[in-house]
Design brief:
The chain is mainly beta and 149 residues long. The protein has two domains: 46 residues, no CATH class; 97 residues, no CATH class. It is built from one helix and seven strands; from the N terminus they run βββαββββ. The strands form three sheets. A three-stranded antiparallel β-sheet has the order 3-4-5, with no helix packed on it. The chain has a two-stranded antiparallel ribbon with strand order 1-2. Strands 6-7 form a two-stranded antiparallel sheet. It is elongated. The protein starts with 19 loop residues before the first strand and ends in a 5-residue tail after the last strand.
Length: 149
Amino acid sequence: MNTTQYDLNAIAAVPQVDSIQEFKVLTDAYAPEWGHTSGGVVTFSTKSGTDKLHGSVFEYIRNSDTDANSFAADLAGSPKPHFERNQYGYAIGGPAAFPPHYRDANHRTFFFQTYEGLRQSQAGNFTYTVLRPWNGRATSRNRLTQRET
């Protein structure tokens, strides 16, 4: 869960996708318990453990080998910039391990844990035009391109 500093109308929590059991989006006429907002309210409940061990793992990979070059970079003849993104994690839940005298029909304790990691590296290229100071006349010489110094 992302516990960033609370700010008016800002996201207060961002749970991992695998940990969400249910969510609701409230857009208008919601109860006073949600206060005054300029937009909607998103509520969610997280999963809990069960009496059997369950889990999942995931990994999403995106890199510059599978990306296309941008239109501006193609036009300028620039190569495709370096980009690597690797997002991975797991979710696991089940019964908590306690001594046998605690594990009867009336006393059950479960756990649920998630983890998400992100590694990203990228480079960028920029194509731009800088105007020369105004000399009182509009000419093509007022423009300074990347090739001129």
